[in-house]
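Duplicate of #3305? Posting structure anyway:
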């Protein structure tokens, strides 16, 4: 089994579980890095989650950038309008969004990053296999918008 620790959405430590993180009394020891003497994490943690499978880079990014649950609903009322066309797409996908696009990222259904383009509103998907993809649009103001995109094959 493997453990990955993230700081602000970036992996900072990877370690294999053997006998390591659980002490003789059965307690999980977070941050223990020396088996000979007790050296543990000292500080504050605001979010700890455990999964029974490795997370993809997209899942980690989505979790890190999700809204703070302590915010009020009124503070989350900002909506950004976006449209993509044609969708389904054969070759070039066009993106219309309020604001300036910093980056377009296309992910496969399993979270693998397929394409990245900066400072553009068009994405050439002709080299992608037919299927469903997730498009992530990052604006210059840091906001991110996600939308499903379907790539189809030519019938000719």
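Output from current build:
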């Amino acid at each position: 089994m493997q453990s990955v620790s993230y700081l602000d959405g970036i992996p900072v430590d990877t370690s294999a579980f053997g006998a390591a993180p659980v002490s003789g009394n059965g307690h999980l020891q977070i941050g223990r890095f020396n088996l000979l003497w007790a050296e543990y994490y000292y500080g504050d943690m605001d979010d700890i989650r455990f999964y029974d499978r490795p997370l993809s880079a997209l899942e980690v990014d989505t979790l890190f950038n999700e809204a703070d649950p302590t915010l009020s609903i009124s503070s989350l009322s900002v909506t950004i309008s976006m449209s993509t066309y044609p969708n389904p797409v054969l070759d070039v996908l066009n993106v219309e969004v309020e604001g300036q696009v910093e980056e377009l990222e296309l992910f496969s259904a399993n979270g693998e990053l397929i394409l990245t383009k900066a400072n553009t509103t068009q994405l050439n998907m002709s080299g992608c296999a037919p299927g469903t993809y997730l498009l992530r649009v990052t604006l210059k103001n840091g906001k991110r918008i996600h939308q499903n995109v379907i790539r189809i094959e030519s019938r000719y």
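Confirmed duplicate; merging threads. The chain has one helix and nine strands. The chain has a mean pLDDT of 77.
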